[in-house]
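Researcher: I've been going back and forth with a colleague about how LRC47 protein might be arranged in three dimensions. Neither of us has a model we trust, so I'd like an independent prediction. The organism is Caloenas nicobarica, in case that matters for your notes. Sequence below.
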Amino acid sequence: AMAAGWPELEAAARERRRELALAGPAVAERVAAGGGRLPAALLALPLLQSLELSGCAALRELGPGLAAALPALHTLVLSGNALGPAGLGAGLGGPLPALRLLDLSGNGLEALPAALGGPGEAPGGAPAFPQLRSLNLSGNRLRELGPGLARAAPQLQALLLSGNRLRALPGGLLPPAAAAGPFPLLSRLEAADNELEELGADIAALPALKSLDVANNQLRELPAALADCPRLKEANFRGNQLKDKRLEKMVNGCQTKAILEYLRAGGRGKGKAENAREEARKKKREKQQKKDGGDAEQDELEEASKLLVKVLHVSENPAPLVVKASPGVKDVRPFIVCCVLKGVNLKPGNALKRFLTTQTKLHEDICEKRTAATIATHDLQLIKSPLIYDVRPPEELKITPLGRKEIKAKDLLRQLQLEAEEQRKQKKRQNVSGLHRYLQLLDGKDNYPCLVDAEGAVISFPPITNSEKTKVRKDTQDLFLEVTSDTSLQICKDVMDTLILKIAELNRSTLENKEDSGSDNESDALCGPVNLNPRQNAQPMNVPLAVEQVRVVDTDGNLKVLYPSKTDLTTVSSLLTVIR
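Model: Here is an independent structure prediction for LRC47 protein. You can compare it with whatever you and your colleague have in mind.
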């Protein structure tokens, strides 16, 4: 009777499941009907190691005894509910000794629950979350944090606080003059999109801090103490109102290392060391007797540090690539955006591997595990134009997927679903993992979408795979990029914008690393020592990638989409200079 109306809980108990995810409108309705509480049957699943309960605007309290009932829990995701500190308090009242990840994002929390060191924290005693590694508190309404968190979760490695109302960081997080350093393992601290006016010098008391994000706040200055964070590698200070204009420029264009060096030297006009260094540089420059003034050179080098992309207009292209969309796609996967990207360099080192990893990351994040949109990248040289975006019945659609033999779409899908199911069983999961959720997008469709080249070969079968025939290789220089979605055209464009930005970033870091061996390439006067012979090596850094517009037309040749149009690539314009 306890589990009435909760078949998921009955199944979990029966199958001795380790994982349980409850989300979506049906769950939200049942929670609301239960007075905004969790069903008691949940407390009868002591084997649970991972519990997700998200997106229930009605969920106001966890109910007492949750911690005591689920001692094996290592992952607890409670995002997008309406859990206040009191509603969390009862459930998180006891210690969760095995918990490693706790996600409380998007709950409208104005204070932390007592168990996490919020108001009413019990003094002394053992930490409530001795194993907690990752705590996500983003998208709440927290104004301040107290020193209790360091006591409650001493092993914390990642603390995510973006999208709150914090005024100061670390603020009250660090206990005053603690004997042992608090948060000895904290390596990732994110507090973008808050109301931060102060970044305190005590940030340097975090010995393991590797990555710091305080973008989009109201910081006027950065403490020199940041340079004393021994492990700080990545820092994002963009979108603040820094008084030091040179620093503001560096924040938008330079590596973290250069910014920290600048802060260590006490900024411009302070610090004797910096002045002495400036003097030495000046003398060297005079010695070289540069013909053009240093200023012009500095501007030029500053420009060189930006990522450049040149848009090649369809009209300038003697043989532009066209994609014809057949009418059938509108019932299956209606939206497609394509373009050509010329001048990528995937030869050196692990550049190709990094390119593929980037694509996987975008699939995970912005594409929502491929369910919102899917990317395919092809070697332009291997594509026979014109292309047709078409639909075919599952038993007629044939493709040679990446790394596999030619196969019918129907069989490929069955194969992939079996593999996903195998993995689910192995891991004792309730649902197929996120990676495989996109396999369900084609369930019950009579036709499958595909991109077919002029020779009739299927080069892409979204959202499942693209083809071995047009696979990107180390020596690929020109790419054909495609993004498809069954959700909206805008998401295709947003994903494509981001994909181009990421490839431009990869391309630049490849060029930088490739030239590293030869000479000091921090040639940007703003971001490091002045390079005395910029002509030699500033040039290749700045060969812009060229994006060629690609049109998608209907069968009568009427334009459906042109990418990139004037309004595209604007979302990434702060990081990318587009020459149109």
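Researcher: What would you highlight for our discussion?
Model: I'd start with this: The chain has 14 helices and 25 strands. After that, consider the following. The domain at 8-170+181-267 is CATH 3.80.10.10 (Leucine-rich repeat, LRR (right-handed beta-alpha superhelix)).
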